[in-house]
Amino acid sequence: SERVIARDVLTDFKPVSTSGSPQEVCGACLLPVESDAQVGLVDSCSHIFHYDCARRWSQTENSCPQCKLRFFWLGAYTPQGKRESLVRIQRRDQEAEEEDDDFEDAQPCEACGQVGDESKLLLCDGMHGTCNAAYHYTCAGLAAVPRG
């Protein structure tokens, strides 16, 4: 019975667009889905994807990047609309980067070499944004952090 369920999860032919838009946009990369592109559809919503975009996205997370509905099936459709494959997608949740080690990201003062209080640190944005130097305002000879 699992085989029957799997076969009926997504239709054998891609539904005709009802959006009125002559060109669909990929729900993952937001680029146009060309008429000769392999299309990806998921079982939870009606958003359209480039198949490769949906496949890559599903390796990180199995929620639609547009509406956030969780999906468990990904169908690949030919440009003519015929389903070529149907793949079961495992549950995945995108994992945020750990922020426990803020100390590693702290920038030392160029003058004294200390990390210390970031609220007293001035960051240089000179050289068209390529200078990343940091100075404590006291090390730079200032009485307080300048406004702005």
Q: Count all strands and give the number.
A: 6
* Rg estimate, integer Å: 25 Å
Instruction: Name the helicity range.
Output: 10-25%
Overall average pLDDT: 81
Which H/E pattern describes the elements? HEEHEEHEHE
Global structural class: alpha+beta
Strand line-up of the largest beta sheet: 2-1-3-4
Individual helix count:
4
The tally of structural domains comes to 2
- Straight-line N-to-C gap: 66 Å
Into which percentage range does the β-strand content fall? Answer: 15-25%
**What are the segments in which pLDDT stays under 50 over at least 5 consecutive residues?**
1-6
Query: Mind summarizing the main beta sheet?
Result: 4 strands, antiparallel
CATH class (first level) name of the largest domain = Alpha Beta
The rough form would be described as elongated
InterPro entries: PHRF1/Atg35, Znf_FYVE_PHD, Znf_RING, Znf_RING/FYVE/PHD
Keywords: Metal-binding, Zinc, Zinc-finger
GO molecular function, one term: zinc ion binding
Protein name: RING-type domain-containing protein
